[in-house]
Amino acid sequence: MFNYKSLYPEDHFKGGFSNFEFVIENGLLVLRKSLKMGSGNEMDHFEKEVKSLEKLADVPYTPNLVRYDLDCDIPYIDYEPFLGINFLNFISAVKNPLEHIGLVKKTVSVVGYLHSYGFVHRDLNPRNIFLGLTFSEYNPIITDFGLALHSDIVDGHEKPAGTPCCASPEQIRTISLGPRSDIYSLGVLMYKLFTKRFPFQGKKQDVLVAHLCRVPRLPWDIDTNIPWGLSQIVMKCLEKRPKDRYQTCSELHDALDAYEKSL
């Protein structure tokens, strides 16, 4: 057994209640996600992730489940390993984010695949979107389905779920969620990519209130190199009311595609 830090920067794999390491068992290398000691109340996240990944076995750009054991002393889930970086590290490293509209479109398409299978991810954030490197090309891999919603998977959460910096207003209010909640989170992802900052920053409670009540600065207002048209696409994703956003990932993809073709 060896630690992932020998292969990846320390913050490539991080989980609030999980540990990650690469493990070799019976000659097979896997990426193991194990429950941290003292996180027993988060066991439902592990159970939900397994159920989600079993349903997503044929969906591209999601982790491939190898094995799991939720009844042992330290519950774990094993995935096929993948090479690349998480989106947060990619954002930090990239010099000209405007060159990566194509990668954003790919990410939107992958989230659209999830929606077509009846899933709402509910925790899309730069750490949960991994950019797998294949044939010198980055392809997004959506990870961490511990909070995902599906009609066949019972949800036991009564408190706001998700990462505060990326949570939609309806997530914070704990009202009915649909695909448009993920579209809001994709807007946060684009905002972070293009401006190098989240729409709202600060203490957790302040960020949550801001998602409900404040309008973020236009990306163009932060950096005039960000085109006005692209800023408008991002801001439409970040509308407070779901009905005012793009209604599907296909609509968002088409808007990005039209913008890219207009250049």
Q: Which runs of at least 5 residues are low in confidence (pLDDT < 50)?
A: 1-12
CATH topology group of the largest domain: Transferase(Phosphotransferase), domain 1
Oligomer: single chain
Order the strands across the largest sheet as they lie in space: 1-2-4-3
Number of domains: 2
In CATH, the architecture of the largest domain is Orthogonal Bundle
Give the SSE order as H and E letters. Answer: EEHEEEHHEEEEHHHHHH
Biggest sheet overview: 4 strands, antiparallel
Question: How would you describe this protein?
Answer:
With 263 residues, the chain is α+β, with helices and mostly antiparallel strands. The protein folds into two domains: 4-79, Phosphorylase Kinase, domain 1, CATH 3.30.200.20; 84-262, Transferase(Phosphotransferase), domain 1, CATH 1.10.510. Helix content is 37%, strand content 17%. The chain contains nine helices and nine strands. It has helices at residues 43-55, 87-93, 101-116, 169-173, 179-195, 204-213, 219-222, 228-237, 249-262, and strands at 18-25, 28-35, 65-69, 76-79, 84-86, 119-120, 129-134, 137-142, 149-150. The chain has a four-stranded antiparallel beta sheet with strand order 1-2-4-3, covered by helices on one side. It has a three-stranded antiparallel beta sheet with strand order 5-7-8. Helix 3 packs antiparallel against helix 5 (179-195) and helix 3 (101-116) packs antiparallel against helix 9 (249-262). Residues 1-12 have low confidence and may be disordered.
